[in-house]
Amino acid sequence: MRTSSKLFRAGTKVLLSLIAVHTGVEASATCTDNGSAPTIAYNASTNYLGCYSDPSVTILTAAKLSTIIMTPQYCVNWCGQRGFEYGGVEFGTQCFCGSMPDFSAASKTNDSSCNSQCSTETSISCGGNYVMSLYQILDPRVNATNTGFVPACQTQPLCSHQVCDTSWSIAERVSSLVNSLTVEEKILNVVDASAGSERLGLPSYEWWNEATHGVGSAPGVQFTSKPAGFSYATSFPSPILTAASFDDALIRAIANVIGKEGRAFANNGFSGFDFWAPNINGFRDPRWGRGQETPGEDIFVVQSYIRNFVPGLQGDDPEDKQVIATCKHFAVYDLETGRYGNNYDPTQQDLAEYFLAPFKTCVRDTGVGSIMCSYNAVSGIPACANEYLLEEVLRKHWNFTADYNYVVSDCGAVTDIWQYHNFTDTEEGAASVALNAGVDLECGSSYLKLNESLAAKQISVQALDQALTRLYSALFTVGFFDGGKYSDLDFSDVSTPAAQALAYEAAVEGMTLLKNDKLLPLGPAHKFKTVAVVGPFANATTQMQGDYSGIPPFLVSPLEAFEGYHGWKVNYALGTAIHDQNTTGFDLALAAAEKSDLIIYLGGIDNSIEAETLDRTSLTWPQNQLDLITNLSKLSIPMTVVQFGGGQLDDSALLQNEGIQALVWAGYPSQSGGPALLDVLLGRRSLAGRLPVTQYPASYADEVSIFDINLRPDLNGSYPGRTYKWYTGNPVVPFGYGLHYTEFEFEWEEALECEYNIQQLIASYQTDISGTINDNTPFATVKARVKNVGHEASDYVSLLFLSSDDAGPIPRPNKSLVSYLRLHNIKSGSEEVSDLPLTLGSLARADENGSLVIFPGHYKIALDIFESLTFEFSLQGYPAVIDTLPVPDAQYNFTVPVHIEPASTEAHS
Ligand SMILES: *[C@@H]1O[C@H](CO)[C@@H](O)[C@H](O)[C@H]1NC(C)=O
Ligand SMILES: *[C@@H]1O[C@H](CO)[C@@H](O)[C@H](O)[C@H]1NC(C)=O
Ligand SMILES: *[C@@H]1O[C@H](CO)[C@@H](O)[C@H](O)[C@H]1NC(C)=O
Ligand SMILES: *[C@@H]1O[C@H](CO)[C@@H](O)[C@H](O)[C@H]1NC(C)=O
Ligand SMILES: *[C@@H]1O[C@H](CO)[C@@H](O)[C@H](O)[C@H]1NC(C)=O
Ligand SMILES: *[C@@H]1O[C@H](CO)[C@@H](O)[C@H](O)[C@H]1NC(C)=O
Ligand SMILES: *[C@@H]1O[C@H](CO)[C@@H](O)[C@H](O)[C@H]1NC(C)=O
Ligand SMILES: *[C@@H]1O[C@H](CO)[C@@H](O)[C@H](O)[C@H]1NC(C)=O
């Protein structure tokens, strides 16, 4: 999503002629009078307070509604009905509510600045771009209760329409609904703030809901301001930290809770039924501000995450889902810098192996409901107008063809086709090429120009009907019309003790030990009586949530957790901010340290350094923090550093500094970050996370252009490549790294055979399993025995890598992660066996055409990054293709003039 106002353009013209062209076909079933669609039952009385500039959209934040039928009265009614004392309209279409405006973020301005026409009543103004028309509500409903969500077919008058007649098939019901809509109504229902149809009794619906690591804030999600009931949802660690657990079962459990909580919100009218998660773009460049939202740089890890997250979120039945998941952003989107207008020209090889592989898994293997197309262009054509990606690859090749499978645009991405990519000459042209390429739903408002597209014959009504058919079929899968097996989920299913325990568990399991000179674990004996707790994350609360967060039930800071530990007297000092020049706080920090017998420094980076729309330019620690850490380390007091943030910092100075005995990476651990950290530092829980990314030296940012899309290194040494698979330099800390409090010994329980013939392998599968093979086809299971020979019980993540020095063309990957498993709580002296399954995909890599090929040659499998165990085997025979990628056409045809974009070498302005 984006925060820019561009998507809600002032004065957007909307056709809302509700003239009935078709009337609903009468239903044969009885239409019981069982409640009606929630209506606004009162008109709020208000004082107009004026027009306020709102540069960061923070005047009112308690609840937000985005709808095409916005007027100030509609907004204050909506807010007042929910018990809020203030309401405000901004951007022409957005309504904000709150109990008290934050005037510190606003300044009163001339009424003429509030010049965005309300979309349905153009004579009235609805704020402006970053300017709010603000109202005090004199009679908010004190006992306001949410009117809830009632399945549309239980409301009048829709229930008597054929769409609600259960004697017809879903396809027939959807078709009857689409056929009953006027063209104007159709257009109003292919944007995220979809209008429904008052005439038919079809409710409006906001498609924009977020759930990357818990039900998150979004236009479709409302956290109530009241203390009980839908005022919060479980906030899990950011995906980058959860991924560091390398625990697939944990990821599935988390996604299941997020989906359950999301559906509980939706059932009660506090969110929609579809959520725009997971973010599955590979964390390819360490500077990417949104890498924190992803499971890291390795596509095999990303694919495993998807296989667990999507079914966890959606549930097992594609026809009766918990919620709809959306894999985003399709495709080749992994940078914020210039994101609205950049074009990338990746090779077919990198497309197949890196950029498209997560989406293939999502579509082909998980039954995901929807896919989001991205801001950037690929090979000169914006992703949301890209017939190759959306039609040939996604729909035809991967079979994204269930009635309910739809494509949604990233927010404003359709407008950007015209405005930033300059791909079309007009906004309606952008809408036309997106719809024709197969984007069924726009997040934004350019599709409201589709009436002009129709008039100019740039699109057909059939294309519009196709999109609507997919969207309503999708809403059927989540009970929007009839209800479903998840319709009883309620607030009692939100933030349960089990969900809270899971959020704590995820934080514990992800935390990763990068250095330990015998300082950790700190307990349980009270070795340290007085502990200095210093740094800009020491008292972190919302900072621990990272981006795409919602409102958690609680946030326990490290400081609060440490102060609650009775063994310690805590001396707290902020010391320094995340990044500034002010060293005034150093003295207090050093003083706190000097009277302590242990220093815990908690810092790193937060969303002021890495975020959506904000890439990093440097991989170093902020200088002020590094200076303070260095000063503290000279005190000769035992010291541990805890590094927060999603992207890695170059830790060279800390790793070399003997005054710092331990270093822990804690990502964004969210609501239970403090207790999780306390428990791993004390050793009540083991530290066993592994880095899901490479920690590059800071020089990498100078060496590699952020716009260089290639994964592979240059053979002449001018470009070092990306990710552990290809990087030719020396990482500061390698992908997969993570220390333990104990020691392990390893032994193969079952390795592989010494030799396989590729053609025999494939033939055996073709006869075994229904004739088709692909990268998912099982190959063999390697078993490793892991014995804890140290003194502490510990989890252990088994990582299995594959490499070859002679198979297939050069360059060859350094190695590839092909299997992993987290073993839990292996007691001192005991052992467990890791089953590590391999597939034919484990053995394959992409050729220049993007085909996955198994090449003959000598191979090695190795357990862990230290190669604790190895086994060599060979593949004989001929190269064999197990998966393909369609070849792009020489030319794509559009119904409007277009301008193919060259590859970006700098940020598109
Ligand atoms: C009325 O709606 C409720 C759920 O909202 C449902 O359980 C009940 O069966 C409905 N009654 C009729 C007569 O349709
Ligand atoms: C609210 O005001 C509108 C416009 O003045 C009017 O049509 C409507 O009946 C009023 N509703 C109530 C519940 O007073
Ligand atoms: C709100 O609820 C309380 C308790 O149920 C009741 O006494 C009061 O009259 C209600 N107020 C309004 C304005 O409905
Ligand atoms: C493609 O998807 C459709 C609809 O979901 C399904 O019926 C069909 O079996 C699938 N085809 C293949 C080859 O998987
Ligand atoms: C947009 O493209 C047209 C046609 O290629 C060109 O004339 C125009 O200068 C471009 N505008 C921008 C802002 O790049
Ligand atoms: C820690 O943060 C909390 C919540 O923001 C705040 O109330 C508290 O005063 C802070 N503690 C210190 C010692 O600054
Ligand atoms: C530096 O920080 C101190 C304490 O945090 C504050 O009082 C002071 O105003 C700051 N100085 C500047 C120049 O921002
Ligand atoms: C575009 O049009 C040309 C000329 O009619 C045709 O040869 C080509 O196949 C078309 N491309 C696509 C992708 O439809």
UniProtKB/TrEMBL annotation:
From the UniProt annotation, give the residues forming the signal peptide.
1-27
Q: Where in the cell is it found?
A: Secreted
Gene Ontology molecular function: any one = alpha-L-arabinofuranosidase activity
Q: Which Gene3D superfamilies match?
A: Glycoside hydrolase family 3 C-terminal domain, Glycoside hydrolase, family 3, N-terminal domain, Immunoglobulins
Pfam families from the entry?
Glyco_hydro_3 (PF00933), Glyco_hydro_3_C (PF01915), WSC (PF01822)
Its pathway, per UniProt, is:
Glycan degradation; xylan degradation
Keyword Hydrolase appears in the UniProt entry: yes
Give the Enzyme Commission number: 3.2.1.37
Q: Which UniProt keywords apply?
A: Carbohydrate metabolism, Glycoprotein, Glycosidase, Hydrolase, Polysaccharide degradation, Secreted, Signal, Xylan degradation
Limits of the WSC domain: 45-138
Cite the InterPro entries for this sequence. BXL (IPR044993), Fn3-like (IPR026891), GH (IPR017853), Glyco_hydro_3_C (IPR002772), Glyco_hydro_3_C_sf (IPR036881), Glyco_hydro_3_N (IPR001764), Glyco_hydro_3_N_sf (IPR036962), Ig-like_fold (IPR013783)
Protein family membership: Belongs to the glycosyl hydrolase 3 family.
Which PANTHER family did the record assign? BETA-D-XYLOSIDASE 5-RELATED, SUGAR HYDROLASE-RELATED
Name of the protein: xylan 1,4-beta-xylosidase
Q: Which organism is it from?
A: Penicillium atrosanguineum
Taxonomy of origin reads: Eukaryota, Fungi, Dikarya, Ascomycota, Pezizomycotina
